[in-house]
Amino acid sequence: MKSIKAKEYLESLPRKGGVYIHSDSGVLYTLFEWLKRQDKLTASSVVLVTDLGMLEIAKEDLPAFSFEDAQKAAADYGANFRCATRREALELYDARFRGLDEVLVAIGGKPAVSTYWTSEVDLEPSSFRSFVYNGISGDILGFYRDMSFAVRPVCSFRKSEFKDEK
């Protein structure tokens, strides 16, 4: 069985968008490749590849937090993790129609169907609102920062994080 090697994968990016399983050993797999594996690898995230770049997505939601606490919780999840930007949130919604939920379930995670804090605040000086993303409808809405919503940590996936399968 062939997994995507770093060099091959990076060379194929313009033509190879989609959702990949990021195994804990550092190798990216398609859902088909993952399901065909005989060994029991584990994965704590998936990688979404779009025209905008590569985004690593945690496999499960964190509990509901206020806006400020959500930012801290996402950062505490792992190195370089954070809440998604509004643009990334829209990419997450779009990816649900390209297999994101199925890939998350395949690694023991949960579909991205909650309402999540983004990392962005309303820049209107008199506003006390920040933006949330609804995973079911794809809506981006402003809510007061002391309200509680879920967190789905994400981080930019870097080329240096690839490992070749040995």
Termini Cα gap: 12 Å
Oligomer class: single chain
Low-pLDDT stretches are 160-166
Q: How helical, in percent, are the residues?
A: 25-40%
Number of helices: 5
Q: What class would the helix/strand composition place it in?
A: alpha+beta
Taken from the alpha-carbon principal axes, the silhouette is: elongated
CATH topology: Mannose-Binding Protein A, Chain A
N-to-C order of helices and strands: HEEHEEEHHHEEEEE
Q: Could you say what the CATH architecture is?
A: Roll
Any idea what the radius of gyration is? 16 Å
CATH class: Alpha Beta
Could you tell me the mean pLDDT?
86
Structure description:
The protein is 25% helix and 30% strand. It is an alpha+beta fold. It has one domain: Roll (Mannose-Binding Protein A, Chain A). The protein has a five-stranded antiparallel sheet with strand order 2-1-3-4-10. Mean pLDDT is 86; it is low at 160-166.
Short structural description:
The chain is of the alpha+beta class.
Sum up the structure in keywords.
166 residues; single chain; 10 strands; alpha+beta; Mannose-Binding Protein A, Chain A; 3-stranded antiparallel beta sheet; 30% strand
Write the layout of secondary structure elements.
Layout: H1 6-12, E1 18-23, E2 28-29, H2 31-36, E3 43-50, E4 53-58, E5 62-65, H3 67-77, H4 86-96, H5 100-106, E6 115-121, E7 129-134, E8 140-144, E9 149-151, E10 154-156
Antiparallel strand pairs: 1-2, 1-3, 3-4, 4-10, 5-9, 6-7, 7-8
